[in-house]
UniProtKB/TrEMBL annotation:
InterPro entries: CREG, CREG_beta-barrel, Split_barrel_FMN-bd. It is found in: Secreted. Belongs to the CREG family. Keywords: Glycoprotein, Secreted, Signal. Residues 1-21 form the signal peptide. It holds the Pfam family CREG_beta-barrel. PANTHER family: CREG1 PROTEIN, PROTEIN CREG1. Residues 26-194 form the CREG-like beta-barrel domain. It comes from the Eukaryota. This is Protein CREG1. GO terms for cellular component: cytoplasm; endomembrane system; extracellular space. SUPFAM superfamilies: FMN-binding split barrel. Its main location: secreted.
Length: 197
């Protein structure tokens, strides 16, 4: 019997890792867990910077970036949004002037919302807004960032070496959760990091 349970659990892990399903989200009263859950189940997000580009200087500028808080196994992840960046990218040029940014991730990019008939703007199709700054990871954290990102985005390993890619993370200072009717919920970074997704 234990062998059958192990095989079933292994099959679920493989199915989830392959993007075949998303486990059910936490209940709305657990906003910190919801924030962790949404980030862990998303492979990309919209990063908004303050533009340093001529003609757009000081205006908000949103761009899509691949991200990961850890390998795709369910109910895991560090909660830290890691990114793989190059100084050649337009948003990174903005961050060199002002490292403050916001990052939005949404369950709309998973099968969950379509399966339940939720429009991406429907609060039940949960999305999270993180505010903070982008920082390069320290040498001691490069291994974690690399494993997190390359496990979900394997093509990154083959991106052009002459682009001088580096690992970065989103240093979270504020978190807003919209996962139910009645408005945004505020989650502190301490609450966020103290729970599992």
């Amino acid at each position: 019997m234990a062998g059958v349970l192990f095989l079933c659990a292994a099959a679920v892990v493989l199915l989830l890792a392959a993007g075949g399903a998303v486990p059910p989200p936490p209940p709305p009263e657990e906003a910190a867990r919801m924030a962790r859950f949404v980030l862990h189940n998303c492979d990309w997000g919209a990063l908004a910077t303050l533009s340093a580009q001529e003609g757009l200087r000081g205006h908000p500028f949103a761009n899509i970036f691949s991200l990961s808080d850890g390998p795709p196994e369910p109910f895991s992840g560090s909660g830290v949004p890691y990114l793989y960046l190059t100084d050649m990218e337009i948003s990174v040029k903005d961050l060199e002037i002002n490292s403050n940014a916001s990052l939005t991730v949404s369950l709309a990019q998973t099968p969950y919302c379509k399966k339940h008939g939720y429009d991406p703007q429907n609060p039940l199709c949960a999305h999270i807004i993180f505010c903070g700054s982008i920082v390069k990871v320290k040498d001691s954290e490069v291994g974690l960032a690399k494993k997190a990102l390359f496990s979900r985005h394997p093509e990154m390993e083959n991106w052009p070496k002459d682009h001088n890619w580096f690992f970065a993370k989103f240093n979270i200072t504020n978190i807003w959760v919209l996962d139910y009717f009645g408005g945004l919920k505020i989650v502190t970074p301490e609450e966020y990091y103290s729970v599992k997704p």
